[in-house]
Design brief:
This protein is α+β, with helices and mostly antiparallel strands. It is built from six helices and eleven strands. The protein has three domains: about 45 residues, no CATH class; about 35 residues, no CATH class; about 120 residues, Mannose-Binding Protein A, Chain A, CATH 3.10.100.10. It has a four-stranded antiparallel β-sheet, with no helix packed on it. Strands 7-8-9 form a three-stranded antiparallel β-sheet. Strand 4 and strand 5 form a beta hairpin. The N and C termini lie far apart (about 65 Å).
């Protein structure tokens, strides 16, 4: 009889209590001061702090510009990590540029071009700005260069210190799932990704982890 009572008591544990126990075990919990809002966990080790998109304007359903206040749109909330100023810094050699938001160091010029495989072969032996650990960026790293508030991403990157052609298409290291003869590439001018056959020669922009 005593065992049955214990079993029934376990069944009657409040779901709220169970959730609290699970959150405590995972190191989470309700909102904290400075966490960004009630119910939103504060940033901690292991969580990804995504940056702002760069969007500062808002539009209605027809595309007409409107006041952003209280729209809940990206241009209103500007959610994410604020961009540093300046966003990019050119190194002393003039050949590399560091993104002060992500910490990535990029080759400043896109003078390199070739097939997808050739891009990998070239960066293996690349010695640039005193570093040899260059690689082809994955598609998300390429997208980190995009300012979604810029009408022309290519022009914005040029104004920020890069020197490549605004019409460039740049390889990523990411193959297309289900179509492995293609890889993702960044079309710089509009700042969008495209699936490109791996055989034609297009540009590539080496990257390395920041220090």
């Amino acid at each position: 009889m005593e065992k049955k009572a214990v079993f029934v008591a376990r069944l009657l544990v409040s779901p709220a209590i169970l959730i609290s126990l699970l959150l405590a075990a995972c190191g989470g919990g309700g909102g904290e001061a400075g966490s960004g809002g009630a119910g939103v966990p504060a940033a901690s080790a292991g969580l990804i702090a995504l940056p702002e998109t760069g969007r500062t304007t808002c539009t209605d359903a027809t595309g007409a510009a409107i006041d952003c206040a209280n729209t809940g749109q990206d241009g209103d909330l500007k959610a994410g990590v604020a961009w540093p100023n300046p966003r990019f810094t050119v190194d002393g050699t003039g050949n590399c540029i560091t993104d002060n938001l992500t910490g990535f160091m990029w080759a400043r010029h896109d003078t390199l071009s070739g097939t997808w495989q050739l891009a990998f072969d070239v960066v293996k032996g690349l010695d640039l700005c005193g570093f040899t650990d260059w690689r082809i960026p994955n598609r998300k790293e390429l997208l980190s260069l995009v300012n979604y508030g810029a009408g022309n991403v290519g022009t914005w990157l040029l104004d920020s210190g890069f020197t490549f052609q605004v019409e460039s298409i740049l390889w990523s290291s990411s193959s297309v799932a289900g179509s492995t003869d293609k890889a993702w590439a960044l079309i710089v001018l509009p700042g969008i990704l495209s699936q490109e056959p791996k055989s034609p020669g297009i540009g590539f922009l080496p990257v390395r982890a920041g220090q």
